Amino acid sequence: MLCFLKNFDVPYLIYPEETYLYSPMRQYLEAVGGPISEEAWEATQSIIVEQEVTAGTLLLENGKVCDAIWHLVSGAGRFFEWHDGEEYTTHFFVGPTFFTNYHSLLSGEPSEFNILMEEESQLQILPYPLLQGLYGTHHALERVGRRFAEQMFMGEFDRRRQLLHWDATRHYEHLEENHPEVLRRFAQKDIASYLGITPVSLSRLRKQRRTSKG
User: Fold this and answer.
1) Domain 17-165, CATH 3.40.50.1980 — does that match?
2) Positions of E strands within 64-203
3) 12, 20, 56, 192 — which has fewest CB within 10 A?
4) Across the chain, what does the average pLDDT equal?
């Protein structure tokens, strides 16, 4: 599977299952930023908040400041914005993965979008103020945080490049070929919104794809 760790052309974050065998969060953090000492890992574990949420839970609301990084153990969700009374989906994410609104997290400014869980989900929350407190004493964690931010930036850069150069058909082909779970697990209206087309146009596109495959 694609992820920010290895590829930056994906509109949502998923990391490889082989990194999810033992202590999944630690496996991923070390894959991003290198080895973490037992002391640093125990300190990280001490601030983790476990949470189970139902489908339809709004984790972050437009106008609120983001103050956490979420590790999605299982489940699925999406980012969306409101514009002129219309809802626009900008990202999908499927567990296991990490996600946050990094701009709001770092700037302290209100979020411009919402984060909505579309399925019953199991989460591990890293409160950002507490995580920052660990950076001063555990430099490995600071390194992980810096590299994670770099990868988030690169992923968003490639996402914006796709928006400029890919049409709806190319976006759909990418999802179909590389991330069919998105097409299975999210509502058609949200996929259409992400592609920048109407649900009717999406139905037409899906029919054309089926016809082309014979």
Assistant:
1) no
2) 68-74, 76-83, 86-94, 97-99, 114-117, 121-127
3) 56
4) 85
